Amino acid sequence: MQVNRSTALRLIVLTLASLQTVTIAQTEAAHTWFEVASVRPSKGNVFRRGPLTVADPLIRLEGYTVFGLLMDAYHVRDFQLKLSAPVPPEDIVDRMYDIVARTPGAGTPKIEDVRVMLQNLLADRFHLQVHHETKVMPVYALTVVRESARLKASASAAECSVRTRLASDGRNNQETFAGCPIERLADVLRNLTSDRPVLDETGLGGRYDFQLVAIPQYRARGGSDPADIDPIAAAAELGLKLVSKRAPVDMIVVDHLERPAEN
Fold first, then answer.
1. What distance in Å separates the CA atoms of residue 80 and residue 77, rounded to the nearest whole number?
2. Which end of the chain lies in a sparser environment, N or C, as judged by fewer CB atoms within 10 Å?
3. Residue (of 159, 148, 207, 164) closest to 183 by Cα position
4. Spacing of C-alpha 259 from chain mean position
5. Dihedral (C-alpha) 131, 134, 140, 144: value to the nearest 10 degrees?
6. What are the C-alpha distances in Å from 188 to residues 42, 82, 177, 234, 241?
7. Of 120, 101, 103, which is closest to residue 61 (Cα–Cα)?
8. CA dist 138 → 24, 243, 261 (Å)
9. Strand, helix or coil at 239?
10. Helices (H), strands (E): how many in the chain?
11. In this predicted model, what pLDDT tens digit does every residue of 62-85 receive, in sequence order?
12. Sign of CA dihedral 256, 260, 261, 263
């Protein structure tokens, strides 16, 4: 059978498109699973502190409860988690695990990809099943006070990094952002404020270099100090404002959970 040139070209284009679709699907699949992961009961006294951070392909999570894993995997706070499954409370909040996992590739993975990998790890090893609900609750909306927010546009092409250092007074945190979108600032403020989510409503795109100095609200409960800088005042120093309002918030409901087999 003879095939004219036009038909042959169409077949080549379709074949290339098909191969491209397969390649994209394989790439996306690689970003949803760890290459290898070890889950073991924790034998140390280390307990999860602070939000998930990613610096290289090797992910180490020490002293994590399932509660902590859920918060990092689904990017939620403790008050956004609900338990509907008949699971002993100690399996959620008391038992601690050490997890060592490697992400695909050699470069620093995106934190969004690592969260999806954690979700799949929980489903695979802990047989986790969840569903989402929406609840209207108090939130902070992060907004711009004035057009010229005190944020320096980043010239670096590297992935966003956030480094935390406890100030010499032992109370304020110094958060140094490098090449970060405003969404990451909202994440940090979400962890500094203890009672509600923080929504990015600044409308600011791009990536920025800046510092935020503030005391976590839980640390301030032990008594005030003249050097304390609360998160609302810290945001104002950047030309931003935390506005209290009510808004729909995503809730994660745990329907099923099992203890993982040690590997």
1. 5
2. N
3. 207
4. 24
5. 100
6. 27, 23, 10, 12, 14
7. 101
8. 40, 10, 39
9. coil
10. 7, 11
11. 889 999 999 999 988 888 998 887
12. positive
Phi, psi (deg, nearest 5) at residue 50: 80, 175
Q: How far apart are CA 263 and CA 261, in angstroms?
A: 6
Residues 254, 263: Cα–Cα separation, whole Å: 24
Q: Which two tokens stand for residue 84?
A: 């509907």
Tell the residue number behind the tokens 């952002």, with chain if given.
Answer: 177
SS (HEC) of 82-94: EECCCCCHHHHHC
| Structural tokens at position 81 | 């988690």
Q: Regarding beta strands 208-214 and 240-256, do their DSSP bridges make them parallel or antiparallel, or are they unpaired?
A: unpaired
Which tokens hold the place of 250?
């995503």
pLDDT at 142 over 70: yes
Output the pLDDT for position 46: 63
pLDDT (tens digit per residue) in 6-22: 665 665 555 555 545 44
Distance of CA 16 to the CA centre of its chain: 36
Count of all residues that appear for the chain in the document: 263
* Alpha-carbon gap, residue 43 to 45, rounded angstroms: 7
Q: Is the CB of residue 137 less than 8 Å from the CB of residue 246?
A: yes
* Pair 111, 54: CB distance under 8 Å: yes
Does this model's pTM top 0.90? My answer is: no
- Looking at residue 39, its pLDDT comes to 93
Tell me the C-alpha to C-alpha distance, in Å, between residue 209 and each of 179, 184, 193, 205, 237. Answer: 6, 11, 22, 13, 14
